[in-house]
Amino acid sequence: MNNNINRSDKMNETRVKLVTKLLPYLRKNGLQSVRMDEIAKVMEISRVTLYKYFSTKEEIIGFIVDGFVDYMNELTSGTLDSDQNFGTRFQQIFVQSVSLIECFTDIFLKELETSYPDWYDRLNEAMKKREQLVLAFYGEGIQKGIFNDINGKLLIMQDELLRGMFNVKYLMTNQLTVQQILYDYYQLKKIQLFKPEKLSAIDDAAIMPRIEYLAQKITKNLF
């Protein structure tokens, strides 16, 4: 039985690595027209090897959606018992928000809704659940006097601004880097949300490696 579990873990690990290679291609080119031979080429494996891990394109899309749902479900609820915990949760939400914006391009979401409505509904439900958790977090912070009394829905909608900034033309025209944008946006969100006397509860050093990693990943996918 242990051997079966180990084989299953190894299989899943390989599937994750293959899909990670594919995602940038799907974000740019969409889901509808891509064929299995193209997928194998992007994954840098033979078509025969591809079928050892995924039997259909639909299975690949489902695996991707399940991965995103699991990632969103990492955001937990529950009472926070210190200012520092609010700072840590804020950083977790920030990193997750940036990752989701970068992954869910308009073309990806539109084609998912059109071609794979069941998977789209599953993803949409997870996004709604995540939004409720984020709003509850904002509400708790306001109630405890840690956050400014600000509309949480506006803060969530504000994240969509990043979608337009993750654009080669925008970056070059404004002489910006992705890392500059992420760092400045993080500072903006932090100052908007936390009361001045509570800003010391946030350990900025803890998030810098994550911002650097996200910046490198997003930049690589753009150019």
Notes on the protein architecture:
- This protein is mostly helical and 223 residues long.
- The chain has a single domain, classed as Tetracycline Repressor, domain 2 (Orthogonal Bundle), CATH 1.10.357.
- Helices cover 76% and strands 0% of the residues.
- It has 12 helices and no strands.
- α6 packs across α7.
- The radius of gyration is 19 Å and the shape is globular.
- The N terminus is likely disordered.
Kindly, what is the distance between the CA atoms of the first and last residues, rounded to a whole number of angstroms? 45 Å
Low-confidence stretches: 1-7
Give me the strand/helix succession.
Answer: HHHHHHHHHHHH
Kindly state the number of beta strands.
0
Domains, number: 1
Percentage of residues in strands: under 5%
Given the helix and strand composition, which structural class is it? mainly alpha
Largest sheet report: none
Descriptive keywords:
mainly alpha; 12 helices; single chain; disordered N terminus; Tetracycline Repressor, domain 2; 223 residues
